[in-house]
Design goal:
- The protein is α/β, with parallel strands linked by helices and 437 residues long.
- Helix content is 33%, strand content 20%.
- It folds into 2 domains: 20-284, 3-Layer(aba) Sandwich (Carbamate kinase), CATH 3.40.1160; 304-397, PUA domain (Archaeosine Trna-guanine Transglycosylase, Chain: A, domain 4, Roll), CATH 2.30.130.10.
- The strands form 5 sheets. An 8-stranded mixed beta sheet has the order 5-6-4-1-7-12-13-10, with helices on both faces. It has a 5-stranded mixed beta sheet with strand order 15-14-16-17-18, with helices on both faces. The protein has a two-stranded antiparallel ribbon with strand order 2-3.
Length: 437
């Protein structure tokens, strides 16, 4: 394995004026167990995070922080264990959110920074105009030299309006803001080829070339403190990288390692330079753009999916060639949805794209596999000929793989070996011991 350098963050770096980073910190980083077993605030980790963001700001980066911890802080404040009842959990979050922000206000104040709080839910992303307004608000906070701190609104959210975990929220925020990087702090050093706590042969993955081709086996138990785990981080990495955003996984106990990862990602490799040291963490490479990712496609990626369309090879290849999806290329329709809702496009049991449909599931079920000349006779009225217009499709895998039908080959590649440390194209069966957010 190539040697790695732990960056202190004090080395000279090329100024990164204007680059926007989204950092996500979870409960497993913010909290720790006391000698009695009760949860307490991990001041060491939080102080390091604050110092990191201050240093990044000094280097010209813009930083948005997505932070969990409202329920955890509420439990500490009230002296109770994490509740399982939804109503109690919402009340505990209400008690903890103010405590969480007070802590951030005080700690960021020690380094001369001010913060702003944004509490959102998935419903805020359903309307495109509202989605754009949130983005404008965050950018205005940055212009005012504030550090935006975003959390899901656990106090009023219903199950239907939840993002599910803050890894997903962080990824969607990065997509929304057209960020340059998304970095997830966790309680392990790397993504591994197996659970390192139970398998001594597990190897660290340092650079993941194709995040979309990873198959995740998260067999480790959670800590109980947070709602996420390694599986949610892999999904977040796939979401961000599909929109062309670099993503990194870093141990929250050593958050300053982000400096070295940023240097690895953003500083160009000089001609004749020796092979660079790999980052301390796992770096997920952004997917090469096969299409223009504008506001509409980013918004579609942020929407909850109401169903799935299963495509034949011809339809997948046509999409890769920038064509619209026609009902003739649909093998089956899953779920119930109306027109203008978001669905997953599936090919050979893999999600290959997200799209907004022009027709309902009922309509598509009747005309799938049929020629457009038959639509009016089958339905009794005229409709658009596309199931999904090409402008409303965003790929979640490399488009070239669809042209070559290489998706299945990627997923059937051999088990990761030591070469996967540098090249993850064969590292498709992944597990981790990550315990929480």
């Amino acid at each position: 394995m190539a040697s790695a350098r732990v960056s202190s963050g004090t080395e000279a770096m090329v100024p990164q004026e204007g680059k926007l980073l989204v950092l996500k910190v979870g409960t497993s980083t913010l909290m720790t167990a006391s000698s009695s077993g009760a949860q307490k605030v991990n001041l060491t980790n939080i102080a390091q995070l604050v110092e990191l963001i201050s240093a990044l700001r000094d280097k010209g980066y813009q930083v948005v922080l997505v932070s969990s911890g409202a329920v955890g802080m509420g439990c500490i404040k009230l002296g109770i264990d994490k509740p399982s009842n939804l109503r109690t959990k919402q009340a505990v979050a209400a008690a903890g959110q103010s405590q969480l922000m007070r802590m951030y206000e005080d700690l960021f104040g020690t380094v001369g920074l001010r913060v702003a709080q944004l509490l959102i839910n998935q419903g805020d992303f359903l309307d495109k105009e509202h989605w754009i307004n949130i983005r404008h608000t965050i950018h205005e906070c940055i212009k005012l030299n504030l550090v935006p701190i975003i959390n899901e609104n656990d106090v009023t959210n219903t199950t239907e309006l939840r993002f599910g975990d803050n890894d997903n929220l962080a990824a969607l925020t990065a997509v929304q803001l057209e960020a340059n990087g998304l970095f997830l702090f966790t309680d392990v050093d790397y993504l591994y080829t197996a659970n390192p706590r139970t398998d001594p042969s597990a190897e660290a993955l340092r650079v993941v070339e194709e995040p979309w081709s990873l198959q995740v086996d998260t067999s480790g138990m959670g800590s109980g403190a947070g709602t996420g785990g390694m599986s949610t981080k892999i999904v977040a990495a796939r979401t961000a990288t599909a929109a062309g955003i670099a993503c990194g996984l870093i141990n929250g106990a050593h958050s300053a390692r982000l400096h070295g990862m940023l240097e690895f990602i953003f500083q160009p490799e000089e001609s004749g330079q020796h092979q660079r040291d790999l980052p301390e963490g796992t770096y997920f490479k952004a997917m090469k753009a096969a299409q223009t990712v504008g506001d509409t496609r980013r918004w579609i990626l942020s929407l909850p999916c109401s169903g799935e369309l299963v495509l034949d090879d011809g339809a997948a290849r046509a999409m890769a060639n920038k064509k619209s999806l026609l009902p003739a290329g649909i093998l089956s329709v899953r779920g119930s949805f109306q027109s203008n809702e978001s669905v997953k496009l599936m090919h050979r049991d893999l999600e290959v794209a997200r799209a907004m449909v022009t027709l309902s599931s009922e309509e598509l079920s009747k005309i799938r596999g049929r020629n457009s000349t038959e639509f009016e006779d089958i339905l009794g009225y005229a409709i658009k000929i596309e199931a999904c217009h090409r402008d409303n499709i965003i790929f979640t895998v490399a488009a070239e793989s669809l042209k070559q039908f290489d998706v299945l080959g990627k997923l059937q590649a051999s088990t990761p070996t030591s070469s996967a440390v540098r090249k993850s194209k064969s590292s498709n069966s992944i597990s981790s011991a990550d315990s929480g957010e």
